[in-house]
Amino acid sequence: MQQPKTVAIIGTGMIASSMAVLCAGHGLRACVLSRGEASTARCLETIRAAFRQMEAQSLLTRAQSEICETYIRFTSSYADLADAEIAFECIVEDIDKKHEVYRALEQNCPALRAICSVSSSIVPNVLAQGMEKYGDRIIVTHPFNPAHMVPYFELCAADATADGVVEYVMSVLSALGRKPVLLKKPTPGFIGNRLQFALLREAISLVESGVADPRDVDACLQYSFCPRYTSIGIFEHFDNGGLELCSTVCSNLFPILSDEKTVPAMMRELMDRGDLGVKTGKGFYDWRSTDMEAYAARVSEPYWKFCRWDYPDTPDSAE
Q1: pTM of the model
Q2: Among 25, 142, 268, 284, which is most buried by a count of CB atoms within 10 Å?
Q3: What is the DSSP letter of 134?
Q4: Which residue in 113, 99, 98 sits closest to 8, CA to CA?
């Protein structure tokens, strides 16, 4: 499918900034709706910081970064989004505020083919409820932050989603180097957080039961099976190992795995002490003497390979 010339991005937070980097880095014009000058300044600072990081990885030059920046516009008026063909709604998880955005898009964007909410908790049927014109074009496109580095997107359509909308969004995201997956039906946490928090629950259970401490558990993840799953999937792995063996291990382990239904006691105790993680200096780990720049580099390192794009080599023609 033909790619959109203009992408509307509603919001100026981390995901919105990251989406602007992603679009501009692929030569798509990103028009970012901002509430005012302060929000614009913060968003632009985040965008420029992302490009500086990419320069440091030799993914592009400063001149290319400056070219990419010409593909990003800021506005406080929905009228300036009139030629957008796709919109990414990246605002707070407040359904009334989201509906205000959708109504404004309905009134100002005649060319809009899809409205993509990055919501992590509101199902698409609720998002589309009450929309008069574009209710059949609203879907969830849940990314992992930062969206320009982490390629996975979880898509979920509403019951009323029109034919072709999901296919169009998937084609746009695929052209941006993303790996979109379409859920057959909505579920809390989608796929990624369901898996991640199931793993967290068992990790905490191992610590609470005295089997290991957090550093031991993290070492297991880093140096045993997690690296495997960067190149193959879990179903691939267990098919390869054989379902007879897998079935035996399921029979032995499933009865003793954690089935905690609330916030684990260990986490509650940390929070009660005011140990909330990095922002307070302590959590599962003591962060007070940690080199946070080095930590941030470790967080980003596995994802730089997904940022090897064909960056634009000429400024936006409308610049």
Answers
A1: 0.93
A2: 25
A3: S
A4: 113
